[in-house]
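SEVERITY: medium
COMPONENT: batch folding queue
REPORTER: lab tech (J.R.)

DESCRIPTION
The queue accepted two submissions in a row. Attaching both inputs and their returned structure tokens so the on-call engineer can compare them side by side.

ATTACHMENT 1
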Amino acid sequence: MGEFVELEAQDGVRMPWNVLPGTKQESSNCVVPVSAIYTPIKPFPNMPVLPYSPLRCRNCRSVLNPFCTVDFSAKLWICPFCFQRNQFPPHYTAISDDNLPAELFSQYTTIEYEEPQMISSSSPSPMIFMFVLDTCMIEEEMAFLKSALSQAIELLPDNSLVGLITFGNLVHVHELGFGETPKTYVFKGSKDVSKDQLLEQMGFFLKTPKPPTSVIAGAKDGLSSDSISRFLLPASQCEFTLNSVLEELQKDPWPVPPHQRASRCTGTALSVAACLLGACVPGSGARIMAFIGGPSTEGLGSIVSKNFSEPIRSHKDIDKDSATHYHKAVKFYERLAKQLVHQGHVLNLFACALDQVGVAELKVAIERTGGLVVLAESFGHIVFKDSLRRVLQLGDYDLGLSSNGIFEVNCSKDIRVQGIIGPCASLEKKGPLCSDTVVGQGNTSAWKMCGLDKATTLCLIFEIAKKDSTDTTIQQPSSYQFYFQFLTYYQHSGGQMRLRVTTLSRRWVAGLGSAQDLIAGFDQEAAAVAMARLVSFKMENEAEFDPIRWLDKALIHLCARFGDYQKDSPSSFSLSSRLSIFPQFMFHLRRSQFVQVFNNSPDETAYFRVTLNRENVANSVVMIQPSLISYSFHSGPEPALLDVAAIAADRILLLDSYFTVVIFHGATIAQWRKAGYHNQPEHQAFAQLLQAPRDDTDEIIKERFPVPRLVICDQHGSQARFLLAKLNPSASYNSDSPLPSGDVLFTDDVSFEVFLDHLQRLVVQ
């Protein structure tokens, strides 16, 4: 798998099939879809940034790249996608074999352009944050939120523009530009507010006449900069006013009768924020930072009634179509998502409550705008506080927030794009590249990415369109190479507009004997992640879909296609080392929180899936199959099998399941710790053993977003469930032979050994 990681380090791309099946039938026999998992703005230390415009093919608009055929004497280059001959412009006249421009260097398959006029433009666009605060919370939670925001405001760049909206039963838009006394504009929470009504009621045209244009969008359409700066001010100018407003901010005064939920108009508040930003700063990459502490019960987008007698929807209610508010709320947030994508704005959500707040409904708006989501139990929780700091901080571990992205794909003929599963929205650019089958955001070859960062990762699903089959294995003549080109035009975190170009080449094989070539190019980790995204998408969008059955059938067909076995002899079954870990990934995916929604709320499931759909392969694999490291006196830290057999009384285990990091002390270790041996000078080795997993945990937490929850527990303790739930139940209460450690899992889940045994029997039939 090392060579695939090296390819990712060069281009930010992982593909399940690095040698492609050559025909439509071959592709369908391969089960795992032909796909690419791509991180558009992954940082590369050695990637050049070219200070000039890219050279494009005059036919298909692809960019000059190392796979182009170049005729130096005639000063021509031939596009590998459409075979169009293109003349080099005059400033390329000096090129030769010994004097190549950077974009033709074979090692620069990924390169960036920053045009000179963009560099010399007056000043880069500032970042814009619209804080939307829920005030229907207990005083303690309000205090936590105000404290976190006060610290966050100090991290904002001085030139970044800031606005503030608070809401409960009513929506309050704070006029920060009027520093003498607090001044707010109030909107009724149960009523939808259009952009025109908002501009009218907030006095945008008191001093200047209303412009004749039908669409009012920013200063260029007649809004005076003075009226915009009443609500959006540079952080350096409004820090004092903002802190004063936060200090005086009280819990929503609207009375809440007994046995009723608070009246909370989340949807209306977000709609007002979107309209205000759309009027003042369209196309700016502004971010709505929504801090929500409970379910929406008032106005559009409400997810439950105010009566406590009506419970909040569960997975069962959604499946049975008995969640009365769900579909209406999703439709509302789809409209909001469309508006935000059109304006180029991002919705970030920080949901902190013991109850559900509506992440399942909001998911569509967060995902299509490329927003971030953080889910925690309280605004005082370290997960929320550290995640918020990570969003705003600059430095070694910043997220590299970028905006206004447009992502385009170009590929050789005989390949079609079915769609993208990930944080983007279709721009509906239809063309010959679009497949009739749509997966995720499809029917287009261009997508809008309102918000993206260094880790944002897309999963492109392709379809092989070539129908005719050949009888011989095709080796490697260049005419049978496939080419892909990914173009990402985006506003860099520094404010400049850039174009990132990644061009890839893969070969295809078909006919007899192609199986060995396909296996040689199979990336098991990328395949597991593509299947995880696909099964999550199908669970959300296909009625009566059975994920376990679908995954099992896919695995059986894949093993039957590429395994070695004699018919009706399970013991003869074997898989190539290139495929041997894939059944293990599928076993853990079947048991993961993406497929097993029992015991998780719709909000939690939506949160897990949003995060899976934006993370790279390495992080996604940890979500599917957590990593386990063992620490003991006998050896240094070493990887352990994700199995109940890994538990021992004299061992510490560190489980990383991405959302939760667990430090698990064996029974003997826990006793010694409680006795305080680690504080005694003669037991320094024990103190170091206890400290080692803590140091490794700090490293994990430092680099991860959202910040994971840390659980420190002991064997036989109640919180040990966080570890036990992820382990392979090789010893359960109904096993024949108990383990020497004495730990058994009380579960009816089958173990990996039983799963593999059944798989072998079904494959060889």
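ATTACHMENT 2
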Amino acid sequence: MNTFARHSICCLLLFYHSLYLLLSVSSDAMATPSPAKSMGDPGITPLSPSHIQQNDTDSNAHTGPSFIVVVAIDFGTTSSGYAYAFTKEPECIHTMRRWEGGDPGVSNQKTPTTILLTPDRKFHSFGYAARDFYHDLDPTESKHWLYLEKFKMKLHTTAELSDQAGAEFDNADIRWVITVPAIWKMPAKQFMREAAYKAGLVPRDNPEQLIIALEPEAASIYCRKLRLHQMIDIGTKTNQNGFSPTENVGAGMTQAKEHVRSKRQSRTFLVENVIGELWSELEEGDRYVVVDCGGGTVDLTVHQIRLPEGHLKELYKASGGPYGSIGIDYEFEKLLCKIFGPDFIDQFKVKRPAAWVDLMIAFESRKRAAAPDRTNPLNINLPFSFIDYYKKFRGHSVEHALRKSNVDFVKWSSQGMLRMNPDAMNALFKPTIDHIIQHLTDLFEKPEVSDIKFLFLVGGFAESPLLQQAVQNMLQGRSRIIIPHDVGLTILKGAVLFGLDPSIIKVRRSPLTYGVGVLNRYVEGKHPPDKMLVKDGTRWCTDVFDTFITCDQSVALGETVKRSYTPAKPSQQVIVIHIYCSEKEGVGFISELGVRKCGTLRLDVTGTESTVVRREIQTLMQFGDTEIRAMAVDVATSRTVKASIDFLSQ
């Protein structure tokens, strides 16, 4: 392993520790915000109707200091990885070829999203190192350690890229990209940014150094550049790239893995050229869907391509749900509970936690072998401690439990294995796949999702032949299904490309309606009587929802919404404005059902004192990016006002 990789892993530890600290003090940071309450007298008023809204497009969005290298970190529920590219060589993406401690015979370009804490809750290790160390602990000792897995956190970092770039530079020369699911709300995105700040990855005074990438968007950016030899097309009847995937769903993916593996160079980092695009396949206005099937979530996004630059427009707001591959693990656990009893399984997980991890690792390797055409059983190794502890717990053998369970499709092997027939394994996939197919079916019924040329299936779960067949059956030839080689790295590579050109997606759809609560002049017959507030002889209507942007509205990159506010008192130094959101398009009042407070806009006007009696603070908010940004200026003095949006402290 080279110096760069070693230093990267050291920095990874720091980020993991920062995430743990944030989680320990803010366990509900990603919880759903509480419903909105009546604002009463908010201390702010719009200056006049003429200041209510003005949209501008900032063509300089994402411009800032030039960076030497872009490093992307893909946070996955089950596994994590990193990739990078130098801005002078954007056609070459470097990815980690192999993680130390990985499973033999497996392409370990990612590491498990696992973290191990000592008995006194100090950070110990992550990834394969955490898993292997925990495995080797004595059972009586392991229960005092804290082993966390399948949670959405991970990171790679580096400050020593000199041996790759041929020049000395520091962290300020690096643009960082962190991936998150598209269905994550603003608090979760801010949580990841806070972790990066806490780890010292990026300074708070230079937030542009870190950008948040939405996972299906990153996949979309990479997929549109695929060459014919870099993908499998299971939506046609013809052979492609030497593969015939329709004859045997999943066989093409197996052959593709061998093809990719044979082409790799024998060094730690794989350098991939991504200049060649499939422009011959894409025309102006073509539409395609990206289905990102990961460990924890499934994200879907719909894009339209604009030529000749190849910019992308989002046609329908990102959607999805918790339908990732860990749902299959839950079904397997339910099966074990049915056979051996939930009380035993709960006790075994507590008393023999390392053995439980071993059992789930064994199941993971076998579930990857599930396929529609499989006829021979799948054998799952039961750890000796499972067999031994069950006999002590119940007083009879595992084999006896299987005979008495009436679960006919699981048998006992004298080699100490559970023998599952293929139908039994496939049944564990069914609930998760059904959720995905239902969501896809609903999406394709939307008027915006018509005439789809390609459906790109990406993410680690996309390797499943069962999922591939289900998607193929659902589409019935309406779109071509494209699966990239090294499908688990698609998001990672796309995140690097996004970091090199964050302006590539020109139009997005707002997932929610955003606005603030304000006082408006009370109008008889228009406003409810219970909302009337009389102040200094003037009648006001309280709790009015002043809409910034509506749900599913198209928003151009850099587009801003302007509002002007004035302090309630001339001596006021800080203006705090609550931001509200809703899934409804039309919202009249912040007290309506489904409206909730989701953030706080803070304007610090210290040092901008003015002789003007009615001071105007002009605020500009950008909604066309992956995060909401705020800027403000004191109109009278033209001085910049510190503006920040907090989505976590709600």
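NOTES FROM REPORTER
The first helix runs from residue 3 to 25.
No errors were logged for either attachment.
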